[in-house]
Amino acid sequence: MVWTMSVGQATASGYRGGTARIRRAGRLNRLDLKQLRVLQALLRERNLSRVAAGMGLTQQAISEQLRKLRELFDDRLFLRQGNGMTATPLALELGERVERILHEIEALLSPAEFTPATYEGVVTLSATDYAMQAILPAFLREVRQQAPLLKLIVQPFESDQVERKLISGELDLALSFPDFLPASLPYLTLFDDRHVCVASPCSPLHGRTLSIGEIAALPQLVVSPSRAALKGSHDQWFAEQGLERHIVISVPTFKAAPDVLYTTDLIAFYPARLLPNPKVAPLTIDFSTPTFEVAVAWHPRTQESAIHRWMIEKLARGVS
Prior knowledge:
Layout: H1 7-30, H2 33-45, H3 48-55, H4 59-73, E1 78-81, E2 84-87, H5 89-109, E3 121-127, H6 129-134, H7 136-146, E4 150-156, H8 162-168, E5 173-176, E6 187-199, E7 209-210, H9 212-217, E8 219-223, H10 235-240, E9 246-251, H11 257-262, E10 267-271, E11 281-282, E12 284-285, E13 291-297, H12 306-318
Parallel strand pairs: 3-4, 3-5, 7-12, 8-9, 8-10
Antiparallel strand pairs: 1-2, 5-13, 6-10, 6-11, 6-13
Helix pairs in contact: 2-3, 2-4, 2-5, 3-4
């Protein structure tokens, strides 16, 4: 036998189904967490006064919540029996489900314990050429030892893209100099470093003590990671001394600088944390160069993230 349904019957069936969904949604909107906790407590205590005392409410308030539950489920749920209450079959059935729901809500509100050794995930770092050499080797070694299941992606630092990528989640942390970081990003200064004046080990300048004026006049190499230009980070400092540097070559990375210095007559100001390097040697000068800060930045939305906090703390401790 083949059953058929007319358009009118199908429409009526769909209407009834839609009405039922609307009715369920309306009932759900009337249910709150307090009512579930009252139902749970009544099933455990079977006594209104004890439930009221345990929840810090009046007996009248508990009775009102029970009234709402009875109306909501269209069942008496509990019947008075002497000084106690007997649960209906529906109340007992609801009890098991309510226990699971409340347990899951409690778990939702309790952050999962963070354990580096078992943490699985992917973290993306953006790092300057300097940070890749001065920070990452020791930091990544320790991360591998303590969080072996964690996967890390390291990207070149792009000052014009770092804010967008941190906002979108493409990046988790950025290692750079504060001057290269957008003002909107929170950051932590990890340490201060200082540039050392260096030249090739074969340079005839070794064995002399050079003044700031002599250094300014010598042909120099600068590292310009953000944009290609014959400008360096110490230009303003030299200008404040009334001097102009004799810059003849610019390279984009600190990693490239020693190779160029080794084969030329140039000098450069090179970060102390990247020394020693067999291709360069410090020159003796009679003045102190300014320091610079190195920082890690993140987006405010990750402020409370356990993995972010752990890595930031690890960076602060590991390179200080």
